Amino acid sequence: MVAGFLLACYLALMVKNKQPADHHFVPQLLLRNFVDHAGDLHVYDRRTPQRGVFYNPPQKVFFESQLYTAYERDLSKNVDLELAFASLEGVLAPVVERIVEGARQGEIVAPHPGERQLLALYTYYQWKRVPDNFKQYASLATIRVDGEEALRRFEAEFGTLDDQEREHFQRDETWRRMLQNVRRDVIARGNPAIVEAINNKNLCIVRASNPKHAFVISSYPVYKLHHPGRANLDDPELEMWFPIASEVSLVWVGHGGDTLFKPLSDGVEIRRLNKCAAAKANMIASRSPELTASLASSVGSQM
What we know:
Helix content: 40-55%
Distance between the termini: 32 Å
Strand order of the largest sheet: 9-10-11-7-12
């Protein structure tokens, strides 16, 4: 289901001629739900603390150049995955908008089974596809060490590389492209069992009912809350939070596949949740410069 849907998304976009270069790992359809009245996000990036809190429109933050690009044998760029994500976001945009608008009115908007499965898929990829997640598992140094060891085994079994092959594997750029392709393939492959586990949970739509309170969005936008040593998605007490607007968050929790609605007026609890959102992220953003600044010390605190 996962790979098939992404392939269908890509085929639907093949008619586009221009290949996207800037790949948003947090899509603009979500970022637009966290802007201020001027349409800007107030951002803090712990990697550039000298900037403090700065503001930018959604199109200028939470992206990396060629993030999901793969390199073919002829070194041409393959952006299938980015196109697939863009198509998935296009399909889900009206569903997200309907949920957010319903929550703002204090109403429960239950997605139908097909939409719910897509939301589970979307939640899964928003957890898996972000650099704050996947870049911690492999680096240029580790892939080069492992790759060079594999080359030594290859030469021992099949004979030494020729001069052209050896020169190829001495280039840093060769290993960078390999790392890029490995990451891209791992992200694209997906895990249907995890998507199914998310879909089998209850979907709780939480609204911050006090207009003074707001959720932040982070570069690690889906985060889990669980007891120590109980991070398995099958644990009924595990919660998977996914803020989709300043005042609305999806929460996958428990078991049963129901859709629930919960207003949240406790400002202390919302602040705790915002700290959890920031803890594994390099960057956060919100509609308020004061809110973002107040959470700066929490950004990356558990990385």
